[in-house]
Amino acid sequence: MPKTASLQPSNIGAGQRLASLGELLRDWLPHQRWFAGKHRPVTDLRLLSMTELYPGCLHLLVHTGHTGTHADPTGVLSGHPGGPTAPAGGVPAPGGTPATGDCYQLLIGIQAHLSPRLGRALIGRADVGPLAGMAVYDAFQDPRSAHLLLERLRHPGTLGPLRFEADPDQPVPAGLAPRLLDAEQSNSSLVYGDAYILKVFRRIQPGVNPDLEVPVALAAQGCDRVPAPVAWFRTTQPQEATLGVLQPFLPDASDGWTLALHALATGDDFTAQAHELGRATADVHLALAAAFPDGGRGETARMAAGMAERLDAAARSVPQLRPYVPGLRGAFNALTACDPGPPAQRIHGDLHLGQVLRAGRDWFVIDFEGEPSRPLAERRSAHSPVRDIAGMLRSFDYAARQRRPWRPEWARRCREAYCAGYAARAGWDPRAKHGLLRAYETDRAVYEVLYEARHRPDWLPVPMAAIERLAVRGD
């Protein structure tokens, strides 16, 4: 058996342990794909919560402060929005602003001798404090820790500030082998026996995460387009917050982005799939409206002003955008005179081809967390369902422009089929809400331009093609 550090509270206090771990974590965190403060050194590390899962394994909630910012002096979970990460099928939703500090969930293993199979998980060796000389590693990559998390979820209960809960009508079998998925960007996910997937939220904000709240509510509505949670865990300190959700895993499913690119590569028609995807989106929107009935009408004047502000800010940063500003601003100004569209309601919030799965002949919608760079309260608020639709339409455009020659006609057919499928199920046609749809697409495309200019300049022509189209009056 490998020797582990003695971590009982009676002999090593939380402050002493953090002193041993602090420098390692400061250097390691900015290099993680789920860390919102990329390229900004961590200048302050504040311990919010420390719980020993088993000897040699610590569950941590830490608050980070970055260069040029001030750490949260209250030591509570941070709710500031952070920097974006690009999902498959598009770029992050508009509206995020740089973070001043964030709370992160960590699972830290500590051993004297680290097994070679955990070499990739190594963070480093502590060189100060009571843990000096010990190997420190990311325990989410340790099968032992993954197994223990599942057992905690299978047998609900309390461990310090952690609360493990489960749906008693959906028991989870024992002995499922875990594996860590490598494709996650803002979270970490563990798959158990190709039967369940545990999404562990890395960046934590106070309150119920929509990726738990929404699927639970949709399951109560009988909506089978969204895998229903079977177990979850949360913390009660320093504030109530969701930490992870266990849901059924669809092992034979493919995401919409992969399927769309395959269709483009092989020349296969994708309009039938797009039509069915539109129907699936409408199913989810109808179930959301029933599950969260306190929507109402959006304030178009305030929405238009916010879109115009984002346009002006983007144009100051991206010169290529400036010639199109008058036409784009016209799309936003027209909002006050156009049909307000359907009532505001809970929506997905970050819908694109990478957020949908096709298993057999059915489409499933996943990842209701919303855009992680937005505050949790905003992600849980009501918006027009047209915003989701615009996100998916932009995703079709991105797929059609992955390779030269671009395939705008392919995107047009998919967009038409998607809207037709949505109309067949929802009872109203997104294409009939032309002014609203144009405004939301424009807002999305403006942010895409800003994102690509900053992070992937070679991709800038993709959203600029949409900008040219959307800037034309009456498009």
Can you characterise this structure?
It is built from twelve helices and 16 strands. The protein is an alpha+beta fold and 475 residues long. The protein has three domains: 14-142; 154-248, Phosphorylase Kinase, domain 1; 254-470, Aminoglycoside 3'-phosphotransferase, Chain: A, domain 2, CATH 3.90.1200.10.
- The overall pLDDT, averaged over residues, is 88
Question: How would you sum up the major sheet?
Answer: 7 strands, antiparallel
Note the total helix count. 12
- Which structural class best describes the helix and strand composition? alpha+beta
Proportion of β residues?
Answer: 15-25%
Proper CATH architecture of the largest domain: Alpha-Beta Complex
CATH superfamily of the largest domain: Aminoglycoside phosphotransferase (APH), C-terminal lobe
List the helices and strands and how they pair.
Elements: H1 14-28, E1 42-54, E2 57-66, E3 101-111, E4 122-125, E5 135-138, H2 143-154, E6 157-159, E7 162-166, E8 178-180, E9 187-192, E10 196-201, E11 203-204, H3 210-220, E12 231-235, E13 241-248, E14 254-255, H4 256-266, H5 271-291, H6 300-317, H7 325-333, E15 356-359, E16 362-365, H8 376-379, H9 385-400, H10 408-426, H11 434-455, H12 461-470
Antiparallel strand pairs: 1-2, 2-3, 3-5, 3-11, 4-5, 6-7, 7-12, 8-9, 9-10, 10-13, 12-13, 14-15, 15-16
Helix pairs in contact: 3-5, 4-9, 5-10, 6-7, 6-11, 9-10, 9-11, 11-12
